[in-house]
Design goal:
Two copies of one chain form a homodimer. Chain A is α+β, with helices and mostly antiparallel strands. Chain A has helices at residues 5-15, 49-58, and strands at residues 29-35, 41-47, 62-65, 70-73, 82-89, 95-102, 119-124, 127-132. In chain A, the strands form three sheets. In chain A, strands 2-1-6-5 form a four-stranded mixed beta sheet. A two-stranded antiparallel ribbon of chain A has the order 3-4. In chain A, strands 7-8 form a two-stranded antiparallel ribbon.
């Protein structure tokens, strides 16, 4: 079976060894950051091309802050530096998975918690409500 | 210390029990989906309000496909239904973390793999390249 050029490009992107990140229209990739030892999801943030480049070459996680519209080296103010242990990319190369070891107090969330995902959504008769996740 | 209204709203969003998801300008939330048993990150996708609502009330993961611009009940064609075990939300309520149990063959990726994150980025003299992650 011969593939159309579009199908061939998609196959290359999914199966090949070329790193060809697909930035969104606003120039960003989604990055899921997990603790390299426990696998716990710590946070979700975004990277532009500069943040990705600086992360790859320094081994320290850099993000793009959408709210501040600026490059952000995680930990510069909080001490919660994230050292990159491994960076993965997903099938269609529009999302990253960063396995990191965390410096400082070991936290990743600006609220002081280890993970940003410290609440769960519960269905109630009055609609969905939030409850704290145990052990955060 | 009295908080400004904006600071007070931010604190409520981060510490309160009200589920007030912050959809992006294009009406989407980022959702990180992990295997409830192993904690492995399976995929990153998006939800609009309808996908979120249907997920919460059916207990089956629904997403919004940006490429197809349509609601998507995961597994309808592949059999890889994802049953929602727990839904978490992050500090500023613009990202979700879904812990799921996977039906069908246990995979989540349309390439047939368990996780979409089956390649890692390696720095080389010729720039970053992709290598397969072991055990996928």
């Amino acid at each position: 079976m011969s593939l159309t050029p579009a199908a061939s490009a998609a196959t290359d992107r999914e199966e090949g060894s070329e790193f060809a990140p697909r930035f969104s229209a606003d120039g960003l990739l989604t990055c899921v950051t997990v603790d390299a030892r426990s696998g716990e999801v710590l946070m979700v943030a975004h990277m532009n091309a500069e943040a990705l480049d600086k992360t790859l070459w320094s081994g320290i996680m850099h993000y793009w802050s959408r709210s501040r519209q600026s490059l952000w080296r995680k930990g510069d103010t909080s001490g919660q530096i994230q050292r990159l242990e491994e960076l993965r990319v997903d099938c269609d190369q529009d999302a990253l998975l960063a396995r990191v070891s965390v410096g400082g107090d070991g936290g990743a969330c600006h609220t002081g918690r280890r993970s940003c995902f410290y609440r769960r959504v519960e269905n109630t008769a009055d609609g969905p409500r939030l409850e704290p996740v145990a052990k955060m």
